[in-house]
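Q: My labmate handed me this sequence with no annotations at all. I'd like to see what the chain might look like in three dimensions before we decide whether it's worth expressing. Could you predict it?
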Amino acid sequence: MPNSFLRCRVKISTKSARKQVFFSFRLTVDESMAADGSDLSSELEALHAIYDQDILVWQDDADLTNIAVRPSLRFHELQLQLCVPKGYPGVPLRVSLTGVPDGLLASISQFLNSKAQSLAGEPSMFNIASAASEWMESNGKNMQEEASQDHESSSNGVQQGVREDPAGEKAEPSMQGFPKEEGSPKHSMRTALDVINRIRWDSNLDIRDFTVAYLDRFVGVIEGPFNSFDWEDLMFPQHRVQYFKYKNEVIWDKRGPLFDNVFGSRGKGLKIMDIVERYGDAVEEAPIGNEVESPESDTEGSEPDGERTVERRYKNDPTRPNYFVCTRIDDPEVLSRIEGVQRSIVDTNPGLASGVHPPNLLHVTWCMLRLRTPEEIEKAKSIMKSIVPELVSIFSSPQLAVEFEKLGDFRDRLIYVKGRENAAFTWFSQHLMKRFQDAGIPTPGNHPEFTLHASILRLSRPMARKLNVTFLDRGIYLPFQNTCFGSQTVKGISLCPTGRENIQPDGFYERVCEVKNEFLDVHPGVPELLADRASEMAEEGLMSLEEADALGKRIENGNSDVENIEEAFERRNVCGGEDWEAGSGLVLIIRGLSGSGKSSLLRDLQVHFDIMVCSADSYFDGESYQCDLGKLADAHRHCLDQFVSALERRHPFIAVDNTNSRLWEYGLFVRLAKMMGFRVKVVEMACTNISMLKDFAARNVHGISLAVINKMFDRWEVDPEAVIVQPFLDHGESRSDPSEEVAGMCMELMKPTVPQAQVLYTALFLTGKSRADLLRLSPPMHKNVKVDHVTIAFRPTTTHAFSLPLGSTVKIRVTGIASDELIQAATVDLLTKHSLDSQRVPHITISAADGVPSKLSNDLIARNNGSEVRPCTGIDLEGVVACVVSFGESRLVPLERVVDKGRLRSLLHSDSDSNGNEDEPPILATEAPDQVEEIFVFDFDDTVFDTPLYTEAIRDYEQHTGQPWPHRGFWGQKDSLLPPLKSYPGPAFQDFITHCGRRGALTVLMTGRIETTREGVESVLASYGVKPDRLILKTGGKTTSVYKVEEVRNLLYEFRSVKRIKLWDDLCENLAGFSTLSKRWEHIEWDIIDSLAIFPPHFEGPRRPTRKRKEGVGDELGLSTYMSTLGCFPDDCWKRNTKAGIDIVTRCWAKAIGFTGAIRRLASVFGSYPIGRKSDVDMCLLAPHTFTHKSCMSALEAELRLEGVRRIYQGHSSRCPRLKVQFDFIGSLPVECDIVFCCVSIDVLKNGVETPKGLLKCVEGKDEPSKVAVEGPIFMESLQKVTKNSARMKQLAVVVEALSRILAKNHMKGNAFHCPRTFHLVKLAARCLAKNRNEELESSEQFLVAVLEECAEMKAADWSKLFKEFVPQEYVPPLQRIMKHALGKVKDPEFPKWKAMTELFKEYGCVSTSGYSSIEVKCTCECEEDSWMLLQYLTARAGTCVRNILAGGFMVLPGEVTIEKESVVMSFMVEEKSSEPVAVQKALLMLKEEVEAFEFCKCSCLVDQELATA
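A: Here is what I predict for the chain of 1510 residues:
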């Protein structure tokens, strides 16, 4: 049934009463009628929702559905009978009538049957009933005359259609043919469904006036606004509805005694319109939609006396609102768009011009009130000023804006722009209203359900009479209904009187009181507190005295630019240390439901720490705790007082103990703490089920009921940065105590900071002569003369410092001078090349004004793309490479310039070389941009790829397309490399992919193909997922060998720091040219490789003889060889780096815990690395039982950073926290380690255990993360028993890699999307191996077939058992299809030939993407280093997003999460459906908010898909 029918609203006005009469039917559809189709039932249900009269439905002898209707109360004798024929609505209804005077029967019958004929093909019952009502209204006089004549001719003296009861009194009219049981009551009570439909569809009722109460099995009776429920998809059965309310009056109740004041079926016979009329004065007289205008007086003609009386009573009513609290709309974009809509409406109907609200008066109303005396006005102003903390907290910086997203109307009399719903806005309005009510100030005129809006046009009574209309035609604004009007920043709130008598000079209402949204006004002590902090930071050397004075004056003067003030504190705090969290104290925010144990946790922590607890509960502390909910606002203000006082005293440990269910409730505390230099941690007490809610309700000391706690839970907002801990539980098997975990975390955070030597910066320090030469060239312009050094790196890693040629002399040349009123600097070039410069433009600061830091030279030089720099005739200078070492965070501590590595090592207490060797530590990549020390040059055709040959390519092209080759040539055409032609991995493909992306190296693909083929070459590279640093194609008419030699020479000139170059090519002339060139660059190590002499790699056994060119595509080389060619297995370089990474982790961990025994005992390696796959390395480290898992990660991270490791990420999984580490080695690919911890006793740590299973017995019962951590080594032990030997282990690695690539091709791989993990595939292969233990699986191919056969036989339950909770059940059906299709491929006779394997792993996919939309989430960081951290975070959080989408009914095809320079991109596909993708939108919005709140780096998130922005 069309939505337009189901949503129709009908108003039928009679001339006998000045009110709208609504009718509805009672319907009963038995099983035989249900066979007529669900559309008929839906149509009858809609009729029932519209009319208020009985309806009878029955089947006649011909099995046709008949419906008897009495469509009018005024002409109650009339009965309309509709016969529904077979084939309806394609076949028209047959209409007959009774109770119509004979003189009119033929006329109305002809009219209605003609109407039914015209409506054939669409649902028409309602239209015919409506047409009958309209006909009767227009012919009412004739009806009465005819009825009167019939009455006079009546012989029984009783009106037709009216029966007499036995007592002789008239009873209400009965419908002919409606059976009535003897002795039965007149009416049975209408059902809850009847009431629901009446409220939903009766346009004379405002659903916001109604409340519904239902029975919850756990909580009891719960009330909620009627419009907060989804009545199409209700979360509870309708029979659980207990009662309905109109405003505060119960109008339908089934709890007993039964009564129905909606339809009048039980009780005193009252009906809903009687109830509405009883509230009639309030309904008619209250401003529409919380409007603040007084109704206009009627000066344009007469009006009925009754209406004049109503209006006069409204104006003189002492309870109506005369003040309102609002936010003015002054955003130019919003005002402009609203004015455009107003002009369009007036152009359509000029009579509405007087109802337009002037743009200068547009506002958002938060609440209305009535102030009767000057004392009440002063009281209201005091309340307004006290509301500032809530105002600033909700509309915090960056200020939350009101988004105006569409048009709406109130009762067809007022048009408004609607603000986007926000729970915080609603709370603010209700809180403001409650504050006034608690102070005894009336708040009439406010609607129970707050609607954020701004009125733009109102139909007044005089306008309605003048235009002869009763409501606004929605057609005048429908073209603009979904217009986005922009956003309005909430800059403050104002208290204004109603009416337009005192319009101010700025065009707005008179403002009796105005409160601004300014952070400095949240508490009287904040300005002084921040000014003192600025002075402290100057004393600590974190800012200059001049900066501190300027900042203090801005604060004391109440500068409204709080964002810049806050940014100034944040920036200086960051500059004070490597980690902002190394502050002067700790602020712990505790959030949790009432009864979750927040206060108990703090009491336990106070045993170990001196904690200043700030809590709203403390406001009610006394001889006996008594919580007065009416004083909650005062209690929270008391909590803020405590917090500011604690900050003033610089208390080292402050805790905020409140429910904090919404983020804005504690956002103010977080901002203040960070501005004061405190560390902030949020601890959340988890609540995961109804059992916990009941426990909380039973044990909370505030007497808060389960229903109220349930409401708290419903409004709970997720804080992705919070540390979630289990609450105190002590019953059955559910026992938990979070105090130990939180205490361990706090101990780590509160650990005293001992001043330690660290490298502050590295630089090239000018000699005395060079300083004098530079000052002669450019005399100082400012007071403070610098002329000291060229900065290499600020706060570098230890590895970077040791990698520099400390003490060596370097020559530089001055190239330009730049200056302004603050700073003066010289740009330079380095003439002696070293791994020195990490700046975009090396420079020397010459002079600076007072209070101006030297780092502003960077901004000066970069300004306007360097246009501020004046080139000059350069002079040559000299400098010495050195490190500056500091011994604390303050700028006042001594600094030492170090030019000797031995001295540097002694200062830093480095024991990295215990044998006394002064060689630098193992070289990891530094933060400075890499210098290119190695160049790798690869040929394209017959080297990296086997590309199509001319003859075979032409034949294949014609076979696939049915068309001849469209070009005259071949090699110069891009189509020679594009589909349908195929390219395969060449002999040097493995070398190519293992050399791409190495630190300190440049990988170049250099081909003899010309520039016109670039698109084809890039297409081939993209199809295999590889990308070189440079792609060079031939230009000009040179021979290929000459062109390649010249390009290699150009690379060597460009990168003069190169120490080694490797070249791969298949043509002898090219190889000879490279050999000749090498003799001219003898200081460089050359490695020239003939690609035709490369043996194909063979992972499982000895190498086979070399294959001939172009014949490999059809050769049966084997699965292992193919995988090896793709670079799936470790090479020697990767193995060395992996071993180095494992050694670094083990050594650092031993230092972190003070372990002096055999350190190899501390680490167990498991996962893909031991079986021979190239992947991340899984490690389990033994830890003392006194450590928490969080403290383990923090301790290891600290030691790794001292080693120079930069990329470290702490996972937050409560199941098994893990540390992710990436080792970036110069000249090779990075190695990643996933590290988990198993906490054991000191004895176990010293003596060890024989097997990993023995560890499980040593883990304490409550330590679930340790039990999970040891599962990996235990499984590795069992796997080694199954495989027995290294050859079988290699087969296992090949099969797991093959399965992984099959799933990836079919969009079913990726940990970020909760797809099957690698350990699931290993379990599958191991289980198959165990089953086939007695059979010889001679090759990897046979092993793969056996695994796929077992997978094809697995049922859905088997997959679920394998995956447990790790993989969503929605993925199981496509997984079954994938495995069955893959089995067919590997059983093909062509398998394992090269072409067949390429089709299986690269081109083949059985999961269609048809019907799916692509979604891309792009997250951008400020620097490339942050991208890796964001990648780990997004990978961890993406799974939740995907599961939310799946839970919303949308299938997901996983994609990938990749790094692109300073961006992280997550791409996947979502099923397209006709329904609105609300679940997709919510999931993506949640992910976007989580990413943008990521604490470790500043980033932004863009969701690029129309589904996400619909």
